[in-house]
Every structure is written in structure tokens, then in C-alpha cells.
Amino acid sequence: MAKRAKQSRSLAFDPELAELPVEIRWREWMNRIEAVLFAAPQPVERPALARIVGREASIELLIEDIRADLKGKPYDVVGVAGGWQMRTRPAYADAIHASMALPDRHIDFTQTELMVLVSIAYHQPITRGGVSDIIGREASRDVIGALRDKNMITAGPRSPTPGAPFTYVTTKAFLSHFSLETLRDLPDLEALEDAGLLHRHEGTTASMPSLGMVSDHFEGADEEGLSA
What we know:
Layout: H1 2-12, H2 22-39, E1 44-45, H3 46-50, H4 59-69, E2 75-80, E3 83-88, H5 93-99, H6 111-123, E4 126-127, H7 128-135, H8 141-149, E5 153-158, E6 166-170, H9 172-177, H10 189-194, E7 198-200, E8 207-209, H11 213-220
């Protein structure tokens, strides 16, 4: 019965709204997108939003207009993890934490975990041995397991090297936690090298960002962008 009712609602839903005047139709599409982003606990990707607006509607322009409406509000719509999410503005992070109204979602990383995570983020897909070469000491299975338990990394394709070891890649949860839309939003390696924040271990061409500004960027990102 519940499944039949759900299918009935889906058939009755009208994404096009062709009978409405253009301005009212656009405003209704904006309201639909804002409602979905407000209700969703995770970033919402394009296919989900495309289901609720007309086929000719530009999701980017709709979100741009929503963001214009939200100027002066303590929250905004941001691109993160390949989708969009409604998040509070960084200026209000302290007030939110001081209120104690939300559970603590901070994820603690050890220095070694952070080094391994940064290495994987910049060089993925990469094997555990490759990470060990970059950080200059063994990346233990325990550290890899801890990062997997925190949903920051997952197994990637098998390496074409002898023994076909597993590689590791970052997850969408990694992008979301650190407020990145894509991996292209990671600090640029060449810029870090020019700023003296990058070092290379002898005997390897791999680069390892210094744990200064890069780790600070990683550790604080989620606290500045709590979901609305």
C-alpha cells in the first residue's frame, strides 16, 4: 500500500509547471530546490535536483538566484562533494558550538593519520607502500583502517605493479567534511612548493605537503560549514 501511494505521488508531481507564468514558475523551482537542500542531510547532486524542475531550467542559475536571496542570512548554498548543500556561514560557527544545540561532529585525526590522508588525497590512487615512501615511514594497516573507519578513504583499483596491491582513494565524505566541491579544490601543489610548504623526500619524485597550512585547512573545514 505504501509503495503504491509513493508511486502515485511521483506520477502526480509536475516538474515543468507549464501552466504558470514564467516568473512564478522560476520562483517555485527555486523554492523546490531550497526545500530539498534544507531537508537533505548530505550534499544533493544534479540528478536529484533535475527531477524537480523543468527540463529547460538551469540548475546553476536557480542556485545563483537562491544564493542572492540568502545574502545577509547566516547560511548559504555551497558546492560540495559534487553536489550542493545548505550550510551555515563560517562567521557563525562559534555561536553554533557555544549553543550546544548540535552534536559534536568533529573528527579527530592523529598527526600520522593526517599525513597519510593528505598523501592519499594528493596522489590517489596510491598503494600503502607508495604512501610510506611519501611520508618517509611505514603507513601501517592500523592507520589505513582508522581512516577507512572514519569514511575518509576507501579501496581503489588494484595497482598494476607486482602482486597487484590495493590502492586507496578519498571518499565523497572526505570532500564533504573538508568543504571541497572536487579534488581540484585542494591547495595547488606548485603554489605550496613556491610558498615553501612542500618538501620532497630524497630518492622519490613524490611530493608531500608540509603539515603546516595544509593540515590546518583540513582540520578546521567542517567546523566552519555546518549543515543547516
